[in-house]
## 1
Amino acid sequence: MQNDIVIAADSHVYLPADISAPSDWRSETTSLESDIRQGVLENGRIYQTLRENKIQYAFVTHNPYGCNPPPRVQTDFRSVPSDDQMFETYENSHLLMIICDSDLENPLYHAPTGKLPKHILDIGTGKGSWAIDVADMFPSATVRGVDLFPPPLSWIPPNCILEVDDILRSWTWKDPFDLVHIKNLDGSFNAQEQESLYKQCYDNIKPGGWIEQLEVSYFIECDDDSLPGHSVLRSWGPRLAQAAQKAGRPLGAMHTMRDSIANAGFTDIHVKDYKLPIGPWPRDKQLKEVGEVNHQHWMGGMEGYGMWLLTHFGGPLALGEGGGSGLYCTNEAGAYGYEISYLSTQSTGLGEKAGTGTKHRT
Ligand SMILES: C[S@@+](CC[C@H](N)C(=O)[O-])C[C@H]1O[C@@H](n2cnc3c(N)ncnc32)[C@H](O)[C@@H]1O
């Protein structure tokens, strides 16, 4: 190799997990938020992490393998990767909801904000697709999307602002929101953080404004018996829920959000449930389309949704016992092809901060 060739540096360098990084190894994006650290590479996926967001390992009392848990007592909580594969998964789940609600005038959300909302916030915006589409739909509104890391975008509408921040800190936005939107944040917070997040939403929404949340169940279901009882796909959801419980970030927001929204003080609460095919097996044309996209969503997303939780908190189970990663599930689903009527479920919940706003009509 010639010595005079200058090798161009990658501006996004990822550290292997468990290396305590010297402070000068941070990415350029961290200048936005001094303690948002560079990502780490673990099991082939890239994760972003907050230095102070540490959680205790919840040790299992019964250990069938007779060995002690690893000596580490703390770990950064990472949840889902922040890499291209995950962004594609978010894109698919966004598209999925647009197809599901394509018969509505506004397929992006249900809250009756009217045609001239002024300030909208999307919490944990991921790739920012929802925030961007809402900004396009309401050019006179300011739509903010906030996440722990910046999405890989080169262009956003001028009325859309994507910010890097930790939503659990005190909010400093000055204008009260017409709508705060949350999508797929299940498992990101412990009970205390969750309560304070809903409270901050309430305090920062204008009277007559709305909170709207969409959450997915990680349980893969089937209305008939075509999905075998021993299928890893059946046990993947329960295993993930068990691991999340051990991690202190329980799953199940789809079922708890109604109470969480009510407990924060919101009224006029509505919940809409969706049953979504995985794969193009339904006869109905719209559901077939939903199934196609949902299949892409789960096949591309299961590894990312499950990898960190299952490898850190899933317990040392053999693959056949359902301890497999999302990748194993993906392979199994691939092997079954489209012969099985898989389903996933999700719900949208919304509530109003009492005021003079428009009432929701179901
Ligand atoms: C499963 S993703 C969902 C992304 C997007 N809402 C969607 O549905 O496509 C959850 C997102 O929440 C973000 N998140 C988790 N905790 C957060 C926090 N404390 N502050 C801001 N964002 C957070 C994660 O970084 C991740 O992008």
## 2
Amino acid sequence: MPRKLSHLCFLIPALSIATLVCGASPAVEGSREASTTVVIDAGHGGFDHGGIPGQRIPEKEMTLDVAQRLKGLLAASGYRIVMTRDSDVFVPLPTRVAIANSYQNGIFVCIHFNSATRIGADGIETYFYSRNSLPLASAVHYFVAGGAPSPNRGVRRRGYYVLRKTTIPAVLVECGFLTNPNEGQYALSPSYRQKLAEEIAAGVRGRFSVTSTLSSTRVATGESIPLQSYTDQTNVGSSGRTRSKHSNKRSSRTKSSKKKKSSESTGSEASATPKVRES
Ligand SMILES: [Zn+2]
């Protein structure tokens, strides 16, 4: 697919730069990683299906599957894993946050898929809120967007509840649009969900290595990503329900965005503004 090829084109130089900026020694990395708890948060669950009304592919099932695959991968790498849910149950957002915040040395990885009423909307995007979450967000996005045959929608700052209330580095990755025919088809493939989990795992492992000095358009940098308040972003679109995504092109145009969002505001990762639905 042309899209995939174009991704590969900038993946290669970006990867070589990433290698160059690896700073910490393996020994330091190892000891630091040994004590790391990764709190994996599969979006939605139970009565909260995620997505938009009438959506064919249930987001809650996709998120749980990727989360469980990620759990296996990171556990095999020696991380301590905590799942906010490990079955099809509803877990309130404050509970998810409380779980995350009980691991002071942990990191929080929240997994979602996107949805939009416009079926053409597609791409991978990653959210963070606190500044100390940016390296994790950059790294996860770097790998997931690089490994997916989807447009790169960039790293964005937004005050979703689970990002705003967590005190540990926290990231929310949107693994593609289930309402898009192509991305929905990808998501239905177990091997693709495994791939997504592998890329997220690579981001977790590489969060000290993919730094803001990267020049690739695929990676967020402290300089290129303005730390906009989430209110700025949520006020751009029409309403939280439309979720139209205007920027459908690939990559890097992280800012502006008439983009409106998304599954997270849906039943769950409610943002603080009335423009976005709370659960
Ligand atoms: Zn969601």
## 3
Amino acid sequence: MVSFEILLMQLIYLFYMISGVRSNYRTFILILLLSAAFVGSAGNLTNAASLTRASDTEEVEQSDLENKREVTAAVKSDELANAKFVFFDVGQGNSTLIVGPNKEVILIDTGRYDNYLIFKLLKQEEVEKIDLLILTHPHADHIGNAESIIQSYAPQEIWMNGDKHTSHVFERVMNAVHESKTGYHVPSIGKSYKIGAFTLKLLHSSCGSNDLNNGSMAFYLSYGQVTIFFTGDIEKAAEQAIINGGLVQRVDILQVPHHASSDSSHDFFLRRFNPSVAIYSAAEMNSYGHPHKEALTRLKKVAKKVYGTDMNGTIKIMTNGVNYEVVVERSEERKVMPSKII
Ligand SMILES: [Zn+2]
Ligand SMILES: [Zn+2]
């Protein structure tokens, strides 16, 4: 545009320089100048057209990107209806429900032994059967209601890590497992399992040391492009072992290890998984002081949002396998997060 203006000024200057020539020549030169001006503006129009094409090209690239996202999804796009992940408020314990688009149901841990909130919560979510029950480790705040859950819902499959505990709660759970005839399965580290539309990949499990928290099963659960990392009650030793295991990837959501205790969620661990959302489970005013301040500080440095069942009640994540929405029980806050943040 600037170069065209300079050209026009030069032509006008030239016209006045030769204005002394005969009038019929002046008319001829004026026509020449007007033609030059027309060609100049036509040049500008050509530029405008090429700008439009440039933006068209951007749109094409954008849709190409979208196509690529579909191609890289873990499940086919036609399988990606809504799924939900429900982090139950079961007081000082853990329990998370996962329901897929074809009503496939996974339950991870069953709350604590001294309350029965889990049954009310499962009813609220209209759960009628459980396909896979995962008990991350044998502590009573994770397997609390597993005996009754196994008897009432008869899960198709039960995963345990092979660790044993001397508690009565654990004994009763093992009796229920054996009576169910389902038995239990110890999944293999590094292997991917397909459960309906979900893919589970185990990163860590007990090595038989009887360090029950550090023996918790830790695994990715993916739905399309959305990945949640479940960590049970792992502490520093398991966090280090997981990093050393070399199966690290960025995750969208982290189930915060060990109720956001200070002996877990170390910087070296969180930085490698880089979650957008972190969710811990703890009772309000619990005797352990969970969540510990140090853990919360470290989590807030990495995650864009940290939720806790003590503050937010039951926390529900709805996802179509690409994006997800976090809905909390005890707040007006509703936030839509893209699954991939560059
Ligand atoms: Zn626990
Ligand atoms: Zn534990």
